[in-house]
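G.,

No rush on this.
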Amino acid sequence: MTGIAAGLTGFAVLLGLMAIRIPIGVAMLAVGIGGYGLYTGSGPLLAFLKTSTYYQFSTYSLSVIPLFVLMGEFATKAGMSRALYRTAAAFLGHRKGGLAMASIGGCAAFGAICGSSLATAATMGQVALPEMKRYDYSGALATGSLAAGGTLGILIPPSVILVLYALMAEQSIAKMFIAAMVPGVLAAVGYMVAVAIFVRRHPDDGPAGPRATWPERLMALRETWTLILIFALVIVGMYRGWFTPTEAAAVGAFGTGVLAILHGGMRLDGMMACLRGTATTSAMIFLILLGAETFNAFLAQTRTPMLLADAISQSGMSPMWVLMAMLVLYLLLGCVMDSMSMLLLTIPIFYPIIGGLDFGMTREDTLIWFGILAVVVVEVGLITPPVGMNVFIINGMAKDVPMWESFRGVLPFLISDVIRIGVLLAFPVITLGLGRRLG
């Protein structure tokens, strides 16, 4: 069997294991060990497992992951989601569809200190669903806006997905965060425009609420200034070189922890719950990373990524067509896989190919641009049927809304996503411009 045939066979076996519900970390570890051992023998396999496992988990840069996860846990305990939603509702609630827009704005702000789409959707859903139900919002608009808004959690930094991509593609975490800022704001604005168009056609689905007075708005803003300060300190401090990414994550976790104690009333049992949640999530991510490292080592032995990169570069295909084919594949995978699985499975194969293509930019800019595009498209997978994890989470909280109605509710946001992907493809400066200006 040739190298590329062995690599593609291993990839097919991996997909088969995932199809029968084997966790992706375990599946990648099993295929990686089996393939590596069959291809090189037991001696090199044992030597690789002995050194790679220690190296993987002793890498200083990986310590950023549990710290950002802990930051999100503290943010949830601090009750920040409620304050953020109240602030957004004070400024937007008097418009038609205003509470849905406020939900999206609250998701964007909470995602800035949470970094998880599923946690963002679940936390904001607890706050916003009762309010939208009280004002007779339709189930489609209420659940659709929250499911779509929740996807902003993995795009707006700090984001665990962006950290993982940066580590796998050997890019700067700070530069990835800065590159995600404008696309993240563009996503939130696009979703709000989608709500405005939806309620113009269906005005009864999103009735306007009472208009808040300016003193009420300023009072709501006072509750969120600490969050803005923490976010600015983490992002600006990391980019300006005041902190390493790990130090910035530690500062963010400490700041949100203080807020959770002072404003959220967190006590010892709440602290222990946050630590347990962080340990569980981090262990899951680290197992997936070990599986990905082992599977990637098997692929490297077969030279599959390099051979595919050479074949594509010599095929005469336009670099843009290659990129678009990858993004379409992400959209298709998003119908059956979760976001982290998609990235960890494909980035080791895709990023050498993209890095070798000529888009008229430096290799670093190309990989950062591709990383943001990949995360944007992966984010769309969180609301596409039949999996759509965010839709399932929100629908599970809205017991009286049929699943088909929730999926109907995300259609305007999917259209917004397709337009946004096209804009980011056509104009890379939207992604890279802020980093160049700050640099």
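When you get to it, here's the other one too:
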Amino acid sequence: MRLAARRVGAFLENRLIPTGLTPAQFSLMAHMAASQDDSLGALAKRTGLDPSTLTRNLQVLARQGLVEIAIQDDSRRKLAWLTEVGVRRLAFALPVWREAHAEISALIDVGLARSLAESTAILEIGA
């Protein structure tokens, strides 16, 4: 399974090269764009990332000008959102991502991938 995951990851990474995003960055930005709650706690929960990993990933995107990170007035909540540049980059990457997934779907049985995801859900930490 690890070999299959690496192969799929490498395939997606290769397809996303023209966008300047990694699959992990694309996924994180897509989660940010799809949610009304821009707190880091909510984002960590949606993405399944621990807060320190999420913060490191967001800092990389912030250095590239794709996201902004701010501390709310009470200093206990951190917020993050896509910048205008980030929104444009995500919009540019979305058709590339969809095309890559269409290529994968043509090569690998979608039912097999879905079955694997469903049958391994029990392995999720906290499940």
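The first strand starts at residue 67 and ends at 71. The first helix runs from residue 2 to 16.

Enjoy the weekend,
O.
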